């Protein structure tokens, strides 16, 4: 999964348009893009979107944060539509995942959905306190599928006046990004890069996405359909990377009892083999 496109939960028109694109996943949003007065309507519309799904997109639903008191009502409304996953905003750590997982157990049983099949992705850096919970996601739940970092709400939590300048995040946001990446790696789940908000700056989007892939992120969240193709292309392996990966895998296949090998004048070992398999999407 490379691209996760947010779609407002109260807009079937935007959902229809997004469904025509090539995003790997659509996140139907019940949180920030829906005002309080329209939450109930958005829940009903979201259920209809889930039941009317078409194409190969994975469908996630971003529910409201646990501290709003609305999460349980969100889940009750949308789980009959069997979403592929839930996005939990303002997550504070593994305990929040366990709470949502417990509710999902009940909703899956009630709806006849395979137990444990609904995944959870957490937006894990939206408050100052959440940074200190990043180490608690490892082994918290088999449902956990990814950790996404976010800068918009974190800025408000910090009381900051600016997040970035010259296309580069300031240090508090780089710290949150890097810690989220490491937390996801430690938990063995997908690290997901934050949205790019300068909608018409496509060159900047490509640059940021390539930097995310370089550092180890495997996907990016998006807020506009025209970002999808750029992000998908930026996360795709280059021809040179594919060639290298195939050579590494072949070298170890030819020498199954060797821990280190010489390839094109360079020493390679098992971490290189794992990296090669990741490039090719192999287990």
UniProtKB/TrEMBL annotation:
UniProt keyword list: Lyase, Magnesium, Metal-binding
Family annotation (SUPFAM superfamilies): Phosphoenolpyruvate/pyruvate domain
GO MF annotation terms: lyase activity
Listed cofactors: Mg(2+)
Pfam families cross-referenced by the UniProt entry: HpcH_HpaI
Listed InterPro entries: Aldolase/citrate-lyase_domain, Citrate_lyase_beta/mcl1/mcl2, Pyrv/PenolPyrv_kinase-like_dom, Pyrv_kinase-like_dom_sf
Coiled coil, from the record: none
Name under which the protein is recorded: CoA ester lyase
Domain HpcH/HpaI aldolase/citrate lyase: 2-225
